[in-house]
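Quick one, tokens below. Sequence please?
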């Protein structure tokens, strides 16, 4: 294996993919079922073919590249990540793991694997557009239905269903994206850390032993629009007043757990949104994460109680839509151990760590033995355009993952 050559190819592909953004010079904005997603998917297909993989796009918009093993009756080894991004995000979140998987496939081609190896590029991991998440990885497990696609909409009220149609997919066929039970033996994913630990410690590889669980909500508080000057304070139904009373408590509920649980209100919208209008409605998102499922439940319960209380006091009403509920997952110890051995053999510094970010490995790890590795993010910055990782780290990741995949595909 020539790590320098692997690194060079990974760098070239990631540089090429940088152009597929809706916000040139303002980071990567590659939302699902958009022109930029289509351009990236098409490019991935091209480089998969060039690497000698057999290529398939499924009914969920995922792209797969296959290296067939000598015994196709055995459950395959799948490696991948996602090719969508957040708004104004970095150039490596997700897509670097896809490019590493294609590089691993290229290496495996020469080893006559017994099991089939599949490089996977998943559609809509972030949930940025529809507030959901893990769309493509959920679809391969059979967790997505036409009804699901109709239920969730973006900020312009476009449903997943309609966005898929526009992209050239048939949402009525989404269930065909499910892989047969026991057809995937192992899932492995390489990703940037997106946090500060590895960079601060100057550690090359993170071996991920646990990924947090996540609950996501879209809340709408309904009040009544009125004149901001003439409506006395005790005669108004101010949606923003009630909503912000709830919002102001959410971060503290997470802090009170004192175990690393986090809660974020990342989006707030007032309707109609005028300086001199009492708001008729206020929408906001809540994203709660914890390694401890009881904390997810506790914070969610507090959110519901506070909404009941504050909205009743205001005199309006509220809707709350659960967009994602996924439990924390422990990753596969024996695969982590194999990666640890590789790190030792190559003299890579490494540590075990948990992931506060969600990943396709979180969805898939619920049901299939899964392992993940991280490489450092400069200053821990991510989900912003300054996100950066040196290409040499992706070469390290591809090397460790190739050795793991060789072991997994050989028996
Ligand atoms: C995805 O990166 C997430 O953790 O939300
Ligand atoms: Mn990611
Ligand atoms: Mn992300």
């Amino acid at each position: 294996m020539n790590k320098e050559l692997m690194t060079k190819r990974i760098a070239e592909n990631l540089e090429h993919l940088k152009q597929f953004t809706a916000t040139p010079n303002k980071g990567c904005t590659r939302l699902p079922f958009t022109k930029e997603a289509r351009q990236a998917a098409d490019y991935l297909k091209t480089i998969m073919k060039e690497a000698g993989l057999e290529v398939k796009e499924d009914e969920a918009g995922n792209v797969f590249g296959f290296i067939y093993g000598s015994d196709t009756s055995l459950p395959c080894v799948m490696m991948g990540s996602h090719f969508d991004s957040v708004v104004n995000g970095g150039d490596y979140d997700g897509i670097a793991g896809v490019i590493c998987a294609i590089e691993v496939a290229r290496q495996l081609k020469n080893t006559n694997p017994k099991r089939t190896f599949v490089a996977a590029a998943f559609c809509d991991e972030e949930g940025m557009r529809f507030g959901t998440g893990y769309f493509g990885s959920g679809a391969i497990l059979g967790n997505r239905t036409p009804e699901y696609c109709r239920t969730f909409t973006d900020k312009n009220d476009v449903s997943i269903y309609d966005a898929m149609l526009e992209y050239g997919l048939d949402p009525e066929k989404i269930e065909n994206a499910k892989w047969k039970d026991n057809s995937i033996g192992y899932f492995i994913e390489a990703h940037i850390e997106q946090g500060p630990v590895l960079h601060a410690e100057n550690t090359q590889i993170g071996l991920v032993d646990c990924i947090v669980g996540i609950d996501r909500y879209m809340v709408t508080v309904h009040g009544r629009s009125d004149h901001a000057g003439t409506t006395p304070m005790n005669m108004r139904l101010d949606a923003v007043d009630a909503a912000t009373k709830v919002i102001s408590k959410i971060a503290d509920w997470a802090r009170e757990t004192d175990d690393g649980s986090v809660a974020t209100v990342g989006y707030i919208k007032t309707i109609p949104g005028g300086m001199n209008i009492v708001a008729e409605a206020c929408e906001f998102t809540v994203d709660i994460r914890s390694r401890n499922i009881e904390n997810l439940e506790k914070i969610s319960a507090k959110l519901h109680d506070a909404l009941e209380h504050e909205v009743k006091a205001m005199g309006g009403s509220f809707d709350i839509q659960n967009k994602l509920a996924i439990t924390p997952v422990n990753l596969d110890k024996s695969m982590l151990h194999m990666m640890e051995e590789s790190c030792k053999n190559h003299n890579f510094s490494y540590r075990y760590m948990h992931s506060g970010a969600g990943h396709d490995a979180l969805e898939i790890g619920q049901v299939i033995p899964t392992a993940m590795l991280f490489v450092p993010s400069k200053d821990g910055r991510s989900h912003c355009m300054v996100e950066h990782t040196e290409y040499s780290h992706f070469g390290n990741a591809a090397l460790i993952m190739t050795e793991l995949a060789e072991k997994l595909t050989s028996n």
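Residues 86, 93, 126, 383 surround manganese (II) ion (ligand 3) (CB under 6 Å). The mean pLDDT is 98.
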